[in-house]
Amino acid sequence: MNAKGFLLLLLLGAILATLASCGRWNIVGRQKQIDTFSDVYAIGKRIENKIAESGDELSDGEIADIVMSVRDGLDAWGNDIRVFRATNDQSARYIVVSPGRDGVLDFPDTSQYSVMAKVDIRGLFDRDIVFRDGNCVTNSGKDPHTDFPAPHR
């Protein structure tokens, strides 16, 4: 094989390796998003069950114990899963949030989570995964949930 053919083959190999690694990281990111969605859901359900058992609001300590009971309170990227008490006059009592891959909350003013609209964030790994009173606000799970609007990219 001449030098030109060898370089062309080498370049083709590099391009294929790059494409394969991009797809792999997307799959890894998607799995982390699904795992985190499941964990945030589990925390929300445990809070709901505890409220139903006690018939009263939970203390900060009780909420912290519940959060720590699921993957030591960390999402699949290693960021803290947070719980905020709702601060509006609406029916929401608490919000469970994973800040996503980047570890930064989408809203610096956490009261915005109380009123944010539903959105589908599948594949948008830096977006927050949010449950309000045990209900999914940002869909990043496996189900398409047709009632969620498409994300703004």
What does this structure look like?
With about 150 residues, the chain is α+β, with helices and mostly antiparallel strands. The chain has one domain. The chain is about 40% helix and about 10% strand. Strand 4 and strand 5 form a beta hairpin. The longest helix is centred in the first third of the chain and has 52 residues. The protein is elongated. The protein starts with a helix and ends in a 14-residue tail after the last strand. The model has no long low-confidence stretch (mean pLDDT about 85).
Task: Detail the topology: elements first, then pairings.
Blueprint: H1 3-54, H2 60-68, E1 82-85, E2 94-98, E3 119-120, E4 129-132, E5 135-136, E6 138-139
Parallel strand pairs: 3-6
Antiparallel strand pairs: 1-2, 2-4, 4-5
Strand order of the largest sheet: 1-2-4-5
Poorly predicted residue ranges: none
How many separate domains? 1
Q: Structural class of the helices, strands and pairings?
A: alpha+beta
Question: Number of helical runs?
Answer: 2
Q: What does the overall shape look like?
A: elongated
The total count of strands amounts to 6
